[in-house]
Backbone:
């Protein structure tokens, strides 16, 4: 398994694969931060700016798409993705 990065930049959209990816492994902490923010009903614009490093005032569509897809991926991690972690991580 790859060591998660503390505060990485993100792609415009999160992976949609049914298997864990290296991208997911590197962004596990980002996913946790997104889940925490969602649990606190944080405004998506603030989350995009702080967690995803995308300014929603300058790039609103990109910021929303990144927030939406990465939050969906974070939720996938809680229902399916974690099983891949328990099995040793993403195939390399």
Residues:
């Amino acid at each position: 398994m790859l060591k998660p990065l503390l505060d990485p930049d993100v792609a415009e959209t999160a992976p949609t694969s049914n298997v864990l990816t290296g991208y997911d492994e590197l962004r596990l902490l980002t996913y946790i931060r997104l889940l925490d923010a969602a649990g606190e009903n944080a405004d998506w614009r603030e989350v995009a700016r702080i967690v995803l490093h995308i300014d929603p005032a300058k790039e609103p569509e990109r910021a929303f798409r990144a927030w939406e897809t990465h939050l969906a991926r974070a939720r996938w991690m809680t229902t399916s993705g974690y099983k891949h972690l328990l099995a040793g991580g993403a195939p390399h």
